[in-house]
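Quick one:
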Amino acid sequence: MSELSDKKQEQGNKLRFWEVDQDPLRGRGICAVTHMGMLGGEGISWLDSSRLGPALPETAPCLNTAWGSAETLLGDVRPAFFALDASGTGVADGAARADGYGAGRSDVADGADQADGHGAGGADVADGADQAGGHGAGGAGRVDGAGRADIAEGSRGAGEKPRKKARVNLLALGDVGGTVLIGLKLLGGDVISQIGICDLDPQMCRRWEYEMNQTAYPWDYDALPEVRIVESGDLFDCDAFVFCASKAVPALGQEGTDVRMAQFDANRKIVGTYARMAREANFKGLFAVVSDPVEPLCREAFRESNRPESVDGCGAAADLDGRMFDGKGLRPEQIQGYGLGVMNGRAAYYAKKDERFASFLTEGRAYGPHGKDLVIANSIEHYDDQISRELTKLAAEANLRTRETGFKPYVAPALSSAAISIILTLREEWHYSSVFLGGVYMGCKNRFSPAGLETEALPLPEKLFDRLKYAYEQLERIE
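Output:
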């Protein structure tokens, strides 16, 4: 490895990274990689290219030894489904890693159910659900979207064989989960081979298995993914796990409360149970959180999966909250939260209706949590703070407008935030989801690349960065 060339620094790429002589996936080209997640402390600064310093030295002091050194992370560090074997086909066994992660693994997880109307009409998931399995892999990587070279936009190179399709398992078939299932079935045929479904109510599973497997194109009966019923003990025998379970959703008429955060205390126990199951199963795929509140539940899943049952002789250390942490569970980038996609969609909805917001449709961005601290920017280059805040308010309160019609707002979240965004994740295309930034899960534009998780970094206006910083700090305070 060597530091970034002076020529590229002159081009304005100030990101911290190591320069890799060969693309770790294809063995050719150049890839400039920075490592986020547990490996650095910049947090929200990862989203602002103007705030990241010069290239790191080859021995980086910020690396957390629980996750290995830079050298151990220079392999294909994506969740196992995204890795390729030597022949260019999809692997069933994740790439072995020097730090012990990724060996013998082929799982990835897809999105789960979404916030506002989550779980209504479906069986609640009990707090004491049986544990089954799941463990962490993937890698903590960050690639500069502008400065890196020779990595194709989609992921497959010329002449390479198509990757195998993913096996996705979805937990909980309430209003949100059922709608996510429909979206994955109809839209994901190019990247999903089958969808496993699991719910506390066996009749719910039978109903959806009947309905979905009778949904088909004429004469092309294998074009859409097959849906099958899976037992709770087999939930992590997949490439992507979608968490749509929720204890309860605030009823219509309870709009005076934060309907997303109101679900946290109950849902954190549920997601913790399944995170520990993922640990026990040595799950290496994507653990996709759709239930509300998305970002706090992602962090809870990460912490719980890495908490040992016993501290005796396990080599565990205390995390930032003093809770025991042994680094043997899900890796931070294995977990993604799917809530920001619908906030982006809601901003676009209003931008189409009011010319004052039209710049959002071509220049805008969405950041932050799926909730009250959402940040919508009308533009990066031509940022208008007043216009952006007005559009943010409209998007953040759009769920209340749906509730005023007498219906729970779960359809757009289940499709925009979960189904569409999960499919884009599996395609390794840009999408909105919440990823790990220095200890906090926060929504931003990202994708998986051959070098790991890639988050978009743009030179952000000061007023916009201040809004992101506030949202980040608010998420950081949630315990």
